[in-house]
């Protein structure tokens, strides 16, 4: 009997227009009406994720930044798991010395040290999601999208490190070379720092969190609050940063567009994110209840 449904956003709940389809929203509402708790579990910040479900009149708890922050349905923060400043400083040094562009998600927003490189990364993401979109058009779209986001541009990330009021929640490093470069980088960082966890939300990035900031850990903590065993939890995802919750959930669904690793791990495969895979998976489970 499924009591909790946890869904990733990008590549999962969201379509290629970065919105929640009416079909997916209706399925979520049906689950909630039947007493099933729906929770979003995403790598996004709260301010980026919450409006996407609120647009459909849906309220739900949110696990954000891969599990670094947890919010209840009213928007109250329940938990926060930052990376220590000492470890963050060492990671910054490694990334800078190796020439990687990276962004930092602080407790008060996203930080970048290059507007041009941020636009470039968003443009690459858009072309990956929409292969028919030219890179030139993607740059234009990325520039327009950037104006809607609250990005803090700094000359030096030491600004974050030296401010005791600011916490570092996640570090995202990018490389268009993909796993051939990012896998050795991840191995190097993990060998140096046992207190971090590295996942990814696309082939061109790695996402660095505190080792205790994982979607699976956060979902399990939420389930414990409701006295619900993980056997009664359903998780849906598409990429590496969803693995921890897919492993722990009693019922796991990989998206049709999921990575091979995720498809092999999950015990079910649903349709793609552009074909309402989340909604179809939810309705399939509800029909069996």
From TrEMBL:
The keyword rRNA-binding does not apply. CDD domains: HAD_Pase. GO terms for molecular function: hydrolase activity. Keywords: Hydrolase. It is an enzyme of class 3 (hydrolase). Its EC number is 3.1.3.-. InterPro entries: Cof, HAD-like_sf, HAD-SF_hydro_IIB, HAD_sf. The keyword Protein biosynthesis does not apply. PANTHER family: 5-AMINO-6-(5-PHOSPHO-D-RIBITYLAMINO)URACIL PHOSPHATASE YCSE, PHOSPHOSERINE PHOSPHATASE. This is Cof-type HAD-IIB family hydrolase. It comes from Lactiplantibacillus plajomi. The lineage of its organism: Bacteria, Bacillati, Bacillota, Bacilli, Lactobacillales.
